[in-house]
Amino acid sequence: QLQLVESGGDLVQPGGSLRLSCIASGDTLDDYAIGWFRQAPGKEREGVACFRSSPISTYIKPSLRGRFTAFRDNAENTVYLQMNSLKPEDTAVYSCAATDRIHCTSTWAYFNMEHWGKGTPVTVSS
Fold first, then answer.
1. Which of 13, 58, 95, 99 has its CA 20 to 30 A from that of 36?
2. Cβ within 8 Å of residue 68, ≥6 positions away
3. Residue 68 is inside which H or E element, if any?
């Protein structure tokens, strides 16, 4: 059974960077699409980024392109979310999730993800 644990959330100043980790155990990530979601206080959850390594596909929410990227460290069975030039509106709880049923396209966030981590909080504030 695939299990996911997020880490890397922190308090960071506007303009700063963070790298979030989605660490997998119980199965290899080779056949899964990993999605990053975030939920800000009082707002609905939204899909941020998707990464799948086999076959490779990546999708970043258009409004976040240029600041956010997603990639995998194969040796560590981990998918990362690199966030640069952070803004206060990026403040949210970030969660990773996985499914083996999709590729990372523009509609990825609408599909059911079978495996979820518990989330890691990111606060962008001066």
1. 13
2. 48, 49, 60, 61, 81, 82, 83, 84
3. strand 68-73
